[in-house]
Amino acid sequence: NQKKIVVYLVLEKQDEIDKIQTEQQNVDRKKRIINICLEVCKSKLLDYMQPNRIIILENLPLTPNGKIDRK
Predict the structure, then answer these.
(1) Which residues, listed in sequence order, are joined to residue 8 by a DSSP beta bridge?
(2) Torsion of CA 39, 30, 58, 52, to 10 degrees
(3) Cα distances (angstroms) measured from residue 58 to each of 1, 12, 14, 30, 50
(4) Mean pLDDT per segment of 10 residues, for the chain of length 71 residues?
(5) Distance in angstroms (rounded) separating the CA atoms of residues 60 and 66
(6) 3-class secondary-structure state, position 5
(7) What's the pLDDT score for residue 43?
(8) pLDDT of residue 37
(9) What is the per-residue pLDDT for 44?
(10) How far apart, in whole angstroms, are the C-alpha atoms of residue 20 and residue 4?
(11) Is residue 16 classed as helix, strand or coil in its secondary structure?
(12) The whole model's pTM is what?
């Protein structure tokens, strides 16, 4: 039972850019961002600290109090 490291990324809102771009352009943009993150992780982190997955979220889930929901 091995533990896995997951990176959750929240990108800055770019409403105007998102409206103009097609869905495919947004997917390509997210793939480029994920690839850049993986490259940075490989150059800065030890092998056992490498993330197994990078997930892009619109925003982090919050509790009713406004704190990050860790569940």
Answers:
(1) 55
(2) -40
(3) 30, 9, 11, 12, 23
(4) 87 67 82 94 94 91 89 75
(5) 10
(6) coil
(7) 96
(8) 94
(9) 96
(10) 36
(11) helix
(12) 0.72
Cβ neighbors of 69 (< 8 A, separation 6 or more) are 60, 61, 62, 63
* Torsions phi, psi for 58 (to 5 deg): -70, -40
- Residue 56 CB partners (closer than 8 Å, separation 6+): 9, 10, 11, 30, 33, 34
| Residue 30 parent element (H or E) | helix 23-44
φ, ψ for residue 7 (rounded to 5)? -105, 125
Residue 39 has a pLDDT of 96
CA 61/CA 59 separation, integer angstroms: 6
Single-letter amino acid code for the residue at 10: V
Q: Are 52 and 45 in contact (CB under 8 A)?
A: no
